[in-house]
# Entry
Amino acid sequence: MLAQTRLFNKQRTLFYGPGPGFRWKYAAGLMAASLLELTPLPIYAESVKLVQWWDAYFPSKEQTVNYQYRSSKPHSVQYQDVNQDGIYNDALVWYELSAHTPLNPLPRDAGKPNDPDHQYRIDRPSARFYGGVVARFVNVSNLTEKDRQTGARVPAFTHFQQASVQPTEGARPCSYSSRYPHQTIRAGSYDSKAWADMTVMVINEGGKCCPLSQLFQKNPNTQVNFTAAYLWKKADFLNRSAKADQITFDQDSQLSVDITRFRKNVEEVRFLVQDGDQLWISEGTTQVITTATGEVHWTGVEGVEVEDFGGKFGAIVQLHPTQSRWAPYQPVAEEQIQTLAEAIQQMEYDPQKASPQEEQLHHDQSDKLLQALNQMEFSPSTATFVEHTFTDVQAVGVYFATYQFSHQVTKLVFDNFQAYGSAELPKDEAIAISPQGDIHTSSHPHRTQFAGGVSVNEGVFEQRLKVCSCDQVAVRGDLTVVAEDVGKSVDLIAYAISKTSPESREEIFYALNSNRNITFWDKQPDKLIPFQTNVMLQPEHTLDIYQGQLAFPGFLQIHFGYRLPDGMVVTSADSIDVLINGINQASSNEMPYCESISRN
# Structure
Protein backbone atom coordinates (compact mmCIF):
# COMPACT_ATOMS: atom_id res chain seq x y z
CA MET A 1 0.00 0.00 0.00
CA LEU A 2 2.91 2.36 0.78
CA ALA A 3 4.36 1.75 -2.68
CA GLN A 4 0.98 2.50 -4.23
CA THR A 5 0.74 5.73 -2.25
CA ARG A 6 4.18 6.84 -3.43
CA LEU A 7 3.23 6.06 -7.02
CA PHE A 8 -0.04 7.97 -6.62
CA ASN A 9 1.71 11.02 -5.16
CA LYS A 10 4.30 10.99 -7.92
CA GLN A 11 1.86 10.69 -10.80
CA ARG A 12 -1.07 12.77 -9.54
CA THR A 13 0.46 15.98 -10.96
CA LEU A 14 1.27 14.61 -14.41
CA PHE A 15 -1.56 15.53 -16.73
CA TYR A 16 -1.88 16.42 -20.32
CA GLY A 17 -1.30 19.79 -21.84
CA PRO A 18 -0.57 21.09 -25.34
CA GLY A 19 2.22 19.36 -27.17
CA PRO A 20 3.14 15.91 -28.47
CA GLY A 21 3.46 14.31 -25.04
CA PHE A 22 0.21 15.48 -23.56
CA ARG A 23 -1.73 12.25 -23.94
CA TRP A 24 0.73 10.17 -21.94
CA LYS A 25 0.93 12.74 -19.17
CA TYR A 26 -2.79 13.11 -19.00
CA ALA A 27 -3.44 9.39 -18.98
CA ALA A 28 -0.87 8.82 -16.26
CA GLY A 29 -2.51 11.41 -14.09
CA LEU A 30 -6.02 10.13 -14.60
CA MET A 31 -5.55 6.41 -14.44
CA ALA A 32 -2.66 6.00 -11.98
CA ALA A 33 -5.42 6.14 -9.42
CA SER A 34 -5.67 5.22 -5.81
CA LEU A 35 -7.74 2.08 -6.31
CA LEU A 36 -8.63 0.94 -2.85
CA GLU A 37 -10.21 -2.20 -1.49
CA LEU A 38 -13.75 -3.04 -2.58
CA THR A 39 -16.38 -2.15 -0.01
CA PRO A 40 -20.14 -2.77 0.20
CA LEU A 41 -22.39 0.05 -0.99
CA PRO A 42 -25.72 0.71 0.76
CA ILE A 43 -28.73 1.88 -1.25
CA TYR A 44 -30.69 4.81 0.17
CA ALA A 45 -32.37 8.06 -0.81
CA GLU A 46 -29.87 10.88 -1.02
CA SER A 47 -29.65 14.57 -1.71
CA VAL A 48 -28.90 15.04 -5.39
CA LYS A 49 -28.36 17.96 -7.71
CA LEU A 50 -31.24 17.99 -10.18
CA VAL A 51 -30.37 21.09 -12.22
CA GLN A 52 -27.52 23.53 -12.67
CA TRP A 53 -27.76 25.95 -15.57
CA TRP A 54 -24.16 27.21 -15.62
CA ASP A 55 -21.96 26.41 -18.61
CA ALA A 56 -20.59 27.58 -21.96
CA TYR A 57 -23.82 26.99 -23.85
CA PHE A 58 -22.59 28.72 -27.00
CA PRO A 59 -19.24 28.17 -28.69
CA SER A 60 -18.58 31.92 -29.14
CA LYS A 61 -20.16 35.07 -30.49
CA GLU A 62 -18.20 34.65 -33.70
CA GLN A 63 -19.76 31.26 -34.47
CA THR A 64 -23.42 32.05 -33.94
CA VAL A 65 -26.02 34.64 -34.90
CA ASN A 66 -29.16 33.86 -32.95
CA TYR A 67 -29.04 33.93 -29.14
CA GLN A 68 -32.76 34.59 -28.73
CA TYR A 69 -35.07 32.39 -26.71
CA ARG A 70 -36.96 29.76 -28.75
CA SER A 71 -36.95 31.80 -31.98
CA SER A 72 -35.34 34.90 -33.39
CA LYS A 73 -38.59 36.86 -33.08
CA PRO A 74 -41.23 36.61 -30.33
CA HIS A 75 -44.99 36.94 -30.88
CA SER A 76 -46.56 40.40 -30.69
CA VAL A 77 -49.86 42.19 -31.21
CA GLN A 78 -50.74 45.88 -31.30
CA TYR A 79 -53.74 47.94 -30.23
CA GLN A 80 -54.23 46.18 -26.94
CA ASP A 81 -55.38 47.50 -23.58
CA VAL A 82 -52.77 45.92 -21.34
CA ASN A 83 -53.15 48.40 -18.45
CA GLN A 84 -56.96 48.22 -18.72
CA ASP A 85 -57.51 51.96 -18.95
CA GLY A 86 -60.04 51.54 -21.76
CA ILE A 87 -57.61 52.79 -24.43
CA TYR A 88 -56.42 50.22 -26.97
CA ASN A 89 -53.04 51.74 -27.70
CA ASP A 90 -50.75 49.20 -26.09
CA ALA A 91 -48.68 46.23 -27.24
CA LEU A 92 -48.07 42.68 -26.05
CA VAL A 93 -44.78 40.90 -26.77
CA TRP A 94 -44.28 37.34 -25.62
CA TYR A 95 -42.95 33.84 -25.74
CA GLU A 96 -45.90 31.87 -24.35
CA LEU A 97 -45.15 29.63 -21.39
CA SER A 98 -44.77 26.15 -22.82
CA ALA A 99 -44.02 22.83 -21.16
CA HIS A 100 -43.68 21.19 -24.60
CA THR A 101 -41.63 23.58 -26.74
CA PRO A 102 -38.27 24.49 -25.15
CA LEU A 103 -37.57 28.16 -24.48
CA ASN A 104 -33.82 27.80 -24.97
CA PRO A 105 -32.21 29.07 -28.20
CA LEU A 106 -32.14 26.85 -31.25
CA PRO A 107 -29.75 23.90 -30.89
CA ARG A 108 -27.52 22.61 -33.64
CA ASP A 109 -29.53 21.27 -36.56
CA ALA A 110 -28.33 17.85 -37.72
CA GLY A 111 -29.11 18.85 -41.30
CA LYS A 112 -27.38 22.23 -41.00
CA PRO A 113 -24.53 21.74 -38.52
CA ASN A 114 -22.85 25.03 -39.51
CA ASP A 115 -26.00 27.16 -39.48
CA PRO A 116 -25.12 30.18 -37.26
CA ASP A 117 -28.75 30.32 -36.08
CA HIS A 118 -28.45 26.81 -34.60
CA GLN A 119 -25.46 26.70 -32.27
CA TYR A 120 -26.89 26.32 -28.77
CA ARG A 121 -25.16 23.38 -27.05
CA ILE A 122 -28.19 21.35 -26.08
CA ASP A 123 -26.11 18.41 -24.81
CA ARG A 124 -24.47 20.43 -22.04
CA PRO A 125 -25.83 19.82 -18.51
CA SER A 126 -29.24 21.45 -17.89
CA ALA A 127 -29.11 23.13 -21.31
CA ARG A 128 -32.74 22.41 -22.19
CA PHE A 129 -35.27 24.61 -20.41
CA TYR A 130 -38.89 25.63 -20.86
CA GLY A 131 -41.02 28.61 -19.89
CA GLY A 132 -42.14 31.94 -21.25
CA VAL A 133 -41.69 35.72 -21.11
CA VAL A 134 -44.34 38.45 -21.47
CA ALA A 135 -43.79 42.21 -21.80
CA ARG A 136 -46.72 44.64 -21.68
CA PHE A 137 -46.01 48.00 -23.29
CA VAL A 138 -48.35 50.96 -22.66
CA ASN A 139 -49.01 53.85 -25.11
CA VAL A 140 -46.77 52.52 -27.88
CA SER A 141 -48.98 51.44 -30.80
CA ASN A 142 -48.55 54.85 -32.45
CA LEU A 143 -44.74 54.58 -32.27
CA THR A 144 -43.26 53.25 -35.49
CA GLU A 145 -39.97 52.50 -37.19
CA LYS A 146 -38.95 52.07 -40.82
CA ASP A 147 -39.08 48.53 -42.15
CA ARG A 148 -35.63 47.65 -43.51
CA GLN A 149 -37.01 45.72 -46.47
CA THR A 150 -40.04 47.73 -47.58
CA GLY A 151 -39.24 51.16 -46.18
CA ALA A 152 -42.78 51.43 -44.78
CA ARG A 153 -43.50 52.61 -41.26
CA VAL A 154 -44.36 49.66 -38.99
CA PRO A 155 -45.04 49.28 -35.26
CA ALA A 156 -41.78 49.46 -33.29
CA PHE A 157 -42.75 47.54 -30.15
CA THR A 158 -42.79 44.02 -31.57
CA HIS A 159 -39.90 42.59 -29.55
CA PHE A 160 -37.93 42.85 -26.34
CA GLN A 161 -34.82 44.96 -26.23
CA GLN A 162 -33.02 41.70 -25.54
CA ALA A 163 -34.29 38.34 -24.34
CA SER A 164 -31.59 35.79 -24.90
CA VAL A 165 -28.81 33.55 -23.70
CA GLN A 166 -25.64 35.63 -23.89
CA PRO A 167 -22.53 33.55 -24.64
CA THR A 168 -19.74 35.74 -23.22
CA GLU A 169 -21.12 38.12 -20.62
CA GLY A 170 -21.64 35.59 -17.85
CA ALA A 171 -19.42 33.99 -15.23
CA ARG A 172 -15.67 33.58 -15.55
CA PRO A 173 -14.96 29.98 -14.50
CA CYS A 174 -12.05 29.43 -12.14
CA SER A 175 -12.00 33.07 -11.03
CA TYR A 176 -12.30 34.47 -7.53
CA SER A 177 -13.92 37.59 -6.13
CA SER A 178 -15.95 37.85 -2.95
CA ARG A 179 -17.96 40.70 -4.49
CA TYR A 180 -19.95 38.36 -6.77
CA PRO A 181 -22.39 35.49 -6.19
CA HIS A 182 -20.58 32.25 -5.40
CA GLN A 183 -17.29 34.19 -5.48
CA THR A 184 -17.17 33.92 -9.26
CA ILE A 185 -16.52 37.00 -11.39
CA ARG A 186 -19.27 38.02 -13.81
CA ALA A 187 -18.49 39.93 -17.02
CA GLY A 188 -15.29 41.89 -16.44
CA SER A 189 -12.11 41.09 -18.32
CA TYR A 190 -12.39 39.11 -21.56
CA ASP A 191 -9.05 37.38 -21.24
CA SER A 192 -10.59 34.06 -20.29
CA LYS A 193 -13.32 31.65 -21.21
CA ALA A 194 -16.83 32.65 -20.09
CA TRP A 195 -20.05 30.88 -19.31
CA ALA A 196 -23.39 32.11 -20.56
CA ASP A 197 -26.06 34.02 -18.70
CA MET A 198 -29.75 34.70 -19.37
CA THR A 199 -31.18 38.12 -20.08
CA VAL A 200 -34.63 39.65 -19.87
CA MET A 201 -33.80 43.19 -20.95
CA VAL A 202 -37.25 44.52 -21.69
CA ILE A 203 -36.11 48.15 -21.88
CA ASN A 204 -32.69 49.60 -21.19
CA GLU A 205 -31.21 53.10 -21.13
CA GLY A 206 -31.32 53.54 -24.90
CA GLY A 207 -28.60 54.94 -27.11
CA LYS A 208 -27.33 54.02 -30.55
CA CYS A 209 -27.16 50.33 -29.65
CA CYS A 210 -30.80 50.06 -28.72
CA PRO A 211 -33.35 51.86 -30.90
CA LEU A 212 -36.35 50.27 -29.18
CA SER A 213 -35.23 51.52 -25.77
CA GLN A 214 -34.28 54.87 -27.24
CA LEU A 215 -37.79 55.32 -28.59
CA PHE A 216 -39.24 54.30 -25.24
CA GLN A 217 -37.08 56.78 -23.34
CA LYS A 218 -37.96 59.67 -25.69
CA ASN A 219 -41.68 59.21 -25.04
CA PRO A 220 -42.35 59.82 -21.33
CA ASN A 221 -45.92 58.49 -21.43
CA THR A 222 -44.73 54.97 -22.35
CA GLN A 223 -44.75 52.35 -19.60
CA VAL A 224 -43.95 48.68 -19.19
CA ASN A 225 -44.11 45.66 -16.90
CA PHE A 226 -43.10 42.03 -17.44
CA THR A 227 -43.41 38.40 -16.33
CA ALA A 228 -40.87 35.62 -16.94
CA ALA A 229 -40.88 31.96 -15.93
CA TYR A 230 -38.23 29.29 -16.52
CA LEU A 231 -38.64 25.55 -16.00
CA TRP A 232 -36.32 22.53 -16.14
CA LYS A 233 -38.11 19.19 -16.58
CA LYS A 234 -37.35 15.84 -14.98
CA ALA A 235 -36.45 14.24 -18.31
CA ASP A 236 -33.32 16.43 -18.31
CA PHE A 237 -32.41 16.19 -14.62
CA LEU A 238 -28.81 15.45 -13.71
CA ASN A 239 -27.02 12.64 -11.90
CA ARG A 240 -29.39 9.84 -12.96
CA SER A 241 -32.27 11.58 -11.14
CA ALA A 242 -34.13 11.71 -14.46
CA LYS A 243 -34.53 7.93 -14.08
CA ALA A 244 -35.58 8.01 -10.42
CA ASP A 245 -39.03 6.63 -9.65
CA GLN A 246 -39.73 9.44 -7.20
CA ILE A 247 -38.15 12.79 -6.41
CA THR A 248 -39.15 14.62 -3.24
CA PHE A 249 -37.91 17.49 -1.09
CA ASP A 250 -36.45 17.20 2.38
CA GLN A 251 -34.77 19.64 4.77
CA ASP A 252 -31.57 19.57 2.68
CA SER A 253 -33.31 20.37 -0.61
CA GLN A 254 -32.78 23.79 -2.12
CA LEU A 255 -33.65 26.02 -5.08
CA SER A 256 -31.41 28.96 -5.92
CA VAL A 257 -30.50 31.45 -8.61
CA ASP A 258 -27.73 34.02 -9.04
CA ILE A 259 -28.88 37.50 -10.11
CA THR A 260 -26.05 39.16 -12.00
CA ARG A 261 -25.11 42.36 -13.81
CA PHE A 262 -28.60 43.93 -13.95
CA ARG A 263 -31.79 43.84 -11.83
CA LYS A 264 -33.58 47.08 -12.55
CA ASN A 265 -37.31 47.43 -11.96
CA VAL A 266 -37.65 43.79 -10.89
CA GLU A 267 -40.21 43.52 -8.09
CA GLU A 268 -39.86 39.89 -7.07
CA VAL A 269 -38.33 36.47 -7.56
CA ARG A 270 -40.22 33.29 -6.64
CA PHE A 271 -39.63 29.61 -7.31
CA LEU A 272 -41.68 27.11 -9.28
CA VAL A 273 -42.11 23.36 -8.79
CA GLN A 274 -44.25 20.92 -10.73
CA ASP A 275 -45.52 18.17 -8.42
CA GLY A 276 -47.20 15.49 -10.51
CA ASP A 277 -49.29 17.44 -13.03
CA GLN A 278 -49.68 20.59 -10.93
CA LEU A 279 -47.38 23.63 -10.98
CA TRP A 280 -46.83 25.41 -7.66
CA ILE A 281 -45.33 28.83 -6.92
CA SER A 282 -43.62 29.73 -3.67
CA GLU A 283 -44.93 32.14 -1.09
CA GLY A 284 -41.28 32.79 -0.38
CA THR A 285 -40.18 35.75 -2.46
CA THR A 286 -37.84 38.71 -2.66
CA GLN A 287 -38.64 42.27 -1.66
CA VAL A 288 -36.99 45.47 -2.88
CA ILE A 289 -35.66 47.77 -0.16
CA THR A 290 -34.64 51.34 -1.00
CA THR A 291 -32.43 53.04 1.58
CA ALA A 292 -32.54 56.70 2.59
CA THR A 293 -29.58 57.33 0.27
CA GLY A 294 -31.39 55.76 -2.68
CA GLU A 295 -29.49 52.49 -2.70
CA VAL A 296 -31.57 49.49 -3.75
CA HIS A 297 -31.19 46.13 -2.02
CA TRP A 298 -33.14 42.91 -1.92
CA THR A 299 -34.28 40.93 1.05
CA GLY A 300 -36.20 37.67 1.34
CA VAL A 301 -39.47 36.83 3.10
CA GLU A 302 -41.48 33.67 3.82
CA GLY A 303 -38.47 31.38 3.60
CA VAL A 304 -36.48 33.02 0.80
CA GLU A 305 -32.93 33.99 1.73
CA VAL A 306 -30.99 36.67 -0.15
CA GLU A 307 -27.28 37.37 -0.09
CA ASP A 308 -27.07 40.80 -1.69
CA PHE A 309 -23.74 41.97 -3.07
CA GLY A 310 -25.09 45.40 -3.98
CA GLY A 311 -25.60 47.24 -7.24
CA LYS A 312 -24.23 45.60 -10.36
CA PHE A 313 -22.54 42.79 -8.42
CA GLY A 314 -25.75 40.82 -7.98
CA ALA A 315 -27.40 38.62 -5.40
CA ILE A 316 -27.97 34.96 -4.51
CA VAL A 317 -31.64 34.12 -4.03
CA GLN A 318 -32.38 30.74 -2.47
CA LEU A 319 -35.20 28.78 -0.87
CA HIS A 320 -35.51 25.49 0.98
CA PRO A 321 -38.84 24.24 -0.43
CA THR A 322 -39.92 22.78 2.91
CA GLN A 323 -39.66 26.24 4.50
CA SER A 324 -42.25 27.94 2.28
CA ARG A 325 -45.93 27.62 1.65
CA TRP A 326 -47.08 27.22 -1.95
CA ALA A 327 -49.96 28.22 -4.21
CA PRO A 328 -51.18 26.62 -7.44
CA TYR A 329 -49.72 28.30 -10.52
CA GLN A 330 -51.93 27.82 -13.55
CA PRO A 331 -50.87 29.53 -16.78
CA VAL A 332 -53.13 29.05 -19.79
CA ALA A 333 -52.16 26.32 -22.26
CA GLU A 334 -49.99 27.53 -25.09
CA GLU A 335 -52.39 26.21 -27.73
CA GLN A 336 -55.18 28.48 -26.48
CA ILE A 337 -52.90 31.51 -26.59
CA GLN A 338 -51.75 30.67 -30.09
CA THR A 339 -55.36 30.36 -31.28
CA LEU A 340 -56.33 33.71 -29.78
CA ALA A 341 -53.27 35.46 -31.24
CA GLU A 342 -53.86 34.03 -34.71
CA ALA A 343 -57.47 35.23 -34.65
CA ILE A 344 -56.33 38.80 -33.89
CA GLN A 345 -53.59 38.77 -36.49
CA GLN A 346 -55.99 37.55 -39.19
CA MET A 347 -58.17 40.61 -38.59
CA GLU A 348 -55.38 42.92 -39.85
CA TYR A 349 -56.93 45.53 -37.61
CA ASP A 350 -56.47 49.22 -38.49
CA PRO A 351 -58.18 51.51 -35.95
CA GLN A 352 -58.48 54.32 -38.52
CA LYS A 353 -60.36 52.15 -41.00
CA ALA A 354 -62.26 49.72 -38.79
CA SER A 355 -66.04 49.84 -38.52
CA PRO A 356 -67.61 49.95 -35.03
CA GLN A 357 -68.38 46.25 -35.34
CA GLU A 358 -64.80 45.41 -36.34
CA GLU A 359 -63.47 47.56 -33.52
CA GLN A 360 -65.65 45.81 -30.95
CA LEU A 361 -64.67 42.36 -32.25
CA HIS A 362 -61.00 43.29 -32.06
CA HIS A 363 -61.40 44.59 -28.51
CA ASP A 364 -63.23 41.44 -27.42
CA GLN A 365 -60.55 39.17 -28.87
CA SER A 366 -57.80 41.34 -27.42
CA ASP A 367 -59.31 41.14 -23.96
CA LYS A 368 -59.42 37.35 -24.20
CA LEU A 369 -55.78 37.20 -25.28
CA LEU A 370 -54.69 39.52 -22.48
CA GLN A 371 -56.59 37.48 -19.94
CA ALA A 372 -54.95 34.28 -21.21
CA LEU A 373 -51.42 35.71 -21.21
CA ASN A 374 -51.95 37.29 -17.80
CA GLN A 375 -52.52 33.87 -16.30
CA MET A 376 -48.72 33.62 -16.40
CA GLU A 377 -48.61 36.70 -14.17
CA PHE A 378 -49.06 35.45 -10.63
CA SER A 379 -51.36 37.41 -8.31
CA PRO A 380 -49.89 37.27 -4.78
CA SER A 381 -52.73 39.32 -3.30
CA THR A 382 -55.44 36.85 -4.34
CA ALA A 383 -53.47 33.58 -4.03
CA THR A 384 -54.18 30.99 -1.37
CA PHE A 385 -50.91 29.66 0.01
CA VAL A 386 -50.91 26.29 1.76
CA GLU A 387 -48.46 23.87 3.30
CA HIS A 388 -47.58 21.39 0.57
CA THR A 389 -45.52 18.21 0.62
CA PHE A 390 -43.92 17.45 -2.73
CA THR A 391 -44.05 13.75 -3.58
CA ASP A 392 -43.47 13.63 -7.34
CA VAL A 393 -41.23 16.48 -8.54
CA GLN A 394 -41.47 16.71 -12.33
CA ALA A 395 -40.01 20.17 -12.96
CA VAL A 396 -38.33 23.02 -11.10
CA GLY A 397 -37.85 26.64 -12.01
CA VAL A 398 -37.83 30.32 -11.18
CA TYR A 399 -40.30 33.18 -11.68
CA PHE A 400 -39.58 36.90 -12.11
CA ALA A 401 -42.09 39.74 -12.31
CA THR A 402 -42.73 43.45 -12.13
CA TYR A 403 -46.44 44.17 -11.65
CA GLN A 404 -46.61 47.98 -11.66
CA PHE A 405 -46.54 49.80 -14.98
CA SER A 406 -43.84 52.46 -15.06
CA HIS A 407 -41.57 54.44 -17.34
CA GLN A 408 -38.38 52.81 -16.12
CA VAL A 409 -35.42 50.84 -17.34
CA THR A 410 -36.55 47.24 -16.87
CA LYS A 411 -33.94 44.52 -17.17
CA LEU A 412 -32.71 41.38 -15.50
CA VAL A 413 -29.72 39.08 -15.93
CA PHE A 414 -29.23 35.78 -14.12
CA ASP A 415 -27.32 32.52 -14.21
CA ASN A 416 -26.47 29.49 -12.05
CA PHE A 417 -29.99 28.25 -11.41
CA GLN A 418 -29.64 25.21 -9.15
CA ALA A 419 -32.04 22.68 -7.69
CA TYR A 420 -31.40 19.91 -5.18
CA GLY A 421 -33.90 17.20 -4.27
CA SER A 422 -34.08 13.83 -2.58
CA ALA A 423 -34.26 10.57 -4.56
CA GLU A 424 -33.26 6.94 -4.54
CA LEU A 425 -31.07 6.94 -7.61
CA PRO A 426 -31.14 3.96 -9.94
CA LYS A 427 -27.92 2.65 -11.36
CA ASP A 428 -27.19 2.44 -15.06
CA GLU A 429 -27.10 -0.71 -17.13
CA ALA A 430 -23.87 -2.35 -18.13
CA ILE A 431 -22.51 -3.06 -21.58
CA ALA A 432 -21.19 -6.59 -22.11
CA ILE A 433 -18.60 -6.88 -24.89
CA SER A 434 -17.34 -10.18 -26.24
CA PRO A 435 -13.62 -10.73 -26.99
CA GLN A 436 -14.52 -10.28 -30.66
CA GLY A 437 -15.98 -6.85 -29.98
CA ASP A 438 -19.67 -7.75 -30.19
CA ILE A 439 -21.87 -5.79 -27.82
CA HIS A 440 -24.36 -7.90 -25.87
CA THR A 441 -26.50 -5.59 -23.78
CA SER A 442 -29.00 -8.40 -23.17
CA SER A 443 -26.51 -11.22 -22.55
CA HIS A 444 -27.09 -11.01 -18.77
CA PRO A 445 -30.78 -11.35 -17.78
CA HIS A 446 -30.09 -9.40 -14.58
CA ARG A 447 -27.18 -7.27 -15.66
CA THR A 448 -24.63 -5.69 -13.40
CA GLN A 449 -25.48 -2.07 -12.73
CA PHE A 450 -23.08 0.85 -12.57
CA ALA A 451 -22.99 4.28 -11.03
CA GLY A 452 -20.13 6.69 -10.66
CA GLY A 453 -19.27 10.26 -9.93
CA VAL A 454 -16.67 12.89 -9.28
CA SER A 455 -16.40 15.17 -6.27
CA VAL A 456 -14.61 18.53 -6.27
CA ASN A 457 -13.02 19.97 -3.13
CA GLU A 458 -14.81 17.42 -0.93
CA GLY A 459 -18.24 18.24 -2.36
CA VAL A 460 -20.98 15.80 -3.29
CA PHE A 461 -20.35 13.22 -6.00
CA GLU A 462 -21.89 14.01 -9.37
CA GLN A 463 -21.93 12.13 -12.65
CA ARG A 464 -21.15 15.23 -14.73
CA LEU A 465 -19.09 17.97 -13.21
CA LYS A 466 -17.01 20.99 -14.16
CA VAL A 467 -13.75 21.48 -12.29
CA CYS A 468 -10.80 23.84 -12.35
CA SER A 469 -7.33 22.53 -13.01
CA CYS A 470 -6.13 23.04 -9.43
CA ASP A 471 -9.26 21.70 -7.73
CA GLN A 472 -8.91 18.58 -5.62
CA VAL A 473 -11.10 15.90 -7.17
CA ALA A 474 -12.10 12.37 -6.24
CA VAL A 475 -13.52 9.86 -8.73
CA ARG A 476 -15.66 6.99 -7.46
CA GLY A 477 -17.40 4.03 -9.08
CA ASP A 478 -20.19 1.92 -7.64
CA LEU A 479 -21.53 -1.37 -8.99
CA THR A 480 -24.18 -3.92 -8.16
CA VAL A 481 -23.04 -7.25 -9.60
CA VAL A 482 -25.47 -9.53 -11.40
CA ALA A 483 -26.13 -12.74 -9.44
CA GLU A 484 -24.48 -15.15 -11.89
CA ASP A 485 -21.21 -13.16 -11.73
CA VAL A 486 -21.00 -12.99 -7.94
CA GLY A 487 -18.15 -15.18 -6.66
CA LYS A 488 -16.31 -15.31 -9.97
CA SER A 489 -12.64 -14.37 -10.21
CA VAL A 490 -12.38 -11.44 -12.60
CA ASP A 491 -9.95 -8.85 -13.89
CA LEU A 492 -10.74 -5.20 -13.07
CA ILE A 493 -10.47 -2.76 -15.95
CA ALA A 494 -10.60 1.02 -16.27
CA TYR A 495 -10.32 3.21 -19.33
CA ALA A 496 -10.79 6.82 -20.27
CA ILE A 497 -11.72 8.78 -23.37
CA SER A 498 -9.93 12.09 -23.80
CA LYS A 499 -11.29 14.96 -25.91
CA THR A 500 -10.42 18.64 -26.11
CA SER A 501 -14.08 19.53 -25.50
CA PRO A 502 -17.43 17.74 -25.14
CA GLU A 503 -18.28 18.64 -28.74
CA SER A 504 -14.99 17.41 -30.20
CA ARG A 505 -15.16 14.34 -32.43
CA GLU A 506 -11.51 13.42 -31.93
CA GLU A 507 -11.19 10.79 -29.22
CA ILE A 508 -8.19 9.06 -27.73
CA PHE A 509 -8.56 5.95 -25.57
CA TYR A 510 -6.35 4.86 -22.71
CA ALA A 511 -6.27 1.86 -20.37
CA LEU A 512 -4.59 1.19 -17.04
CA ASN A 513 -2.37 -1.91 -16.85
CA SER A 514 -1.31 -4.05 -13.89
CA ASN A 515 1.88 -2.04 -13.36
CA ARG A 516 -0.19 1.11 -13.03
CA ASN A 517 1.22 2.36 -16.31
CA ILE A 518 -0.88 3.87 -19.05
CA THR A 519 -1.07 2.51 -22.57
CA PHE A 520 -2.98 3.59 -25.60
CA TRP A 521 -5.93 1.33 -26.23
CA ASP A 522 -7.23 0.52 -29.70
CA LYS A 523 -10.74 -0.28 -28.37
CA GLN A 524 -10.30 -4.02 -28.97
CA PRO A 525 -11.71 -5.83 -25.89
CA ASP A 526 -9.13 -8.62 -26.01
CA LYS A 527 -6.37 -5.99 -25.77
CA LEU A 528 -7.86 -4.13 -22.81
CA ILE A 529 -5.19 -4.76 -20.17
CA PRO A 530 -6.49 -5.11 -16.57
CA PHE A 531 -5.14 -3.04 -13.71
CA GLN A 532 -5.94 -5.77 -11.17
CA THR A 533 -6.42 -9.51 -11.63
CA ASN A 534 -8.08 -12.34 -9.72
CA VAL A 535 -10.61 -10.24 -7.84
CA MET A 536 -13.49 -12.17 -6.30
CA LEU A 537 -16.74 -10.39 -7.17
CA GLN A 538 -19.10 -9.49 -4.34
CA PRO A 539 -22.73 -8.32 -4.74
CA GLU A 540 -21.91 -4.65 -4.03
CA HIS A 541 -18.69 -2.70 -4.59
CA THR A 542 -17.38 0.82 -4.26
CA LEU A 543 -14.20 1.65 -6.15
CA ASP A 544 -12.28 4.78 -5.13
CA ILE A 545 -10.73 5.35 -8.52
CA TYR A 546 -8.77 8.61 -8.21
CA GLN A 547 -7.87 11.46 -5.88
CA GLY A 548 -5.85 14.50 -6.87
CA GLN A 549 -5.84 17.26 -9.47
CA LEU A 550 -6.61 17.38 -13.20
CA ALA A 551 -4.20 20.09 -14.08
CA PHE A 552 -4.86 20.87 -17.75
CA PRO A 553 -8.07 21.80 -19.60
CA GLY A 554 -9.98 19.13 -21.46
CA PHE A 555 -12.92 16.76 -21.29
CA LEU A 556 -12.81 13.25 -19.80
CA GLN A 557 -15.21 10.34 -20.03
CA ILE A 558 -14.27 7.67 -17.51
CA HIS A 559 -15.48 4.04 -17.59
CA PHE A 560 -14.73 1.08 -15.33
CA GLY A 561 -15.73 -2.56 -15.00
CA TYR A 562 -14.45 -6.13 -15.08
CA ARG A 563 -13.59 -8.99 -17.44
CA LEU A 564 -15.05 -12.45 -16.86
CA PRO A 565 -13.05 -15.68 -17.23
CA ASP A 566 -14.63 -16.29 -20.67
CA GLY A 567 -13.24 -12.94 -21.90
CA MET A 568 -16.52 -11.02 -21.73
CA VAL A 569 -15.95 -7.41 -20.64
CA VAL A 570 -18.68 -5.88 -18.49
CA THR A 571 -18.34 -2.13 -18.28
CA SER A 572 -20.38 0.96 -17.50
CA ALA A 573 -22.60 2.16 -20.32
CA ASP A 574 -22.65 5.74 -19.06
CA SER A 575 -19.44 7.57 -18.37
CA ILE A 576 -18.32 9.78 -15.51
CA ASP A 577 -17.81 13.10 -17.29
CA VAL A 578 -15.35 15.76 -16.15
CA LEU A 579 -14.92 19.11 -17.93
CA ILE A 580 -11.66 20.72 -16.81
CA ASN A 581 -11.39 24.50 -17.08
CA GLY A 582 -8.18 26.48 -17.06
CA ILE A 583 -7.50 29.10 -14.40
CA ASN A 584 -8.78 32.63 -14.99
CA GLN A 585 -5.89 35.11 -14.81
CA ALA A 586 -7.90 38.33 -15.00
CA SER A 587 -6.63 41.30 -13.01
CA SER A 588 -10.06 41.62 -11.41
CA ASN A 589 -9.39 38.49 -9.32
CA GLU A 590 -8.98 39.39 -5.65
CA MET A 591 -6.47 36.56 -5.36
CA PRO A 592 -5.44 33.68 -7.61
CA TYR A 593 -8.21 31.10 -7.80
CA CYS A 594 -5.92 28.28 -6.68
CA GLU A 595 -4.94 30.26 -3.60
CA SER A 596 -8.60 30.90 -2.80
CA ILE A 597 -9.24 27.15 -2.54
CA SER A 598 -6.74 26.74 0.27
CA ARG A 599 -8.32 29.60 2.21
CA ASN A 600 -11.92 28.39 1.96
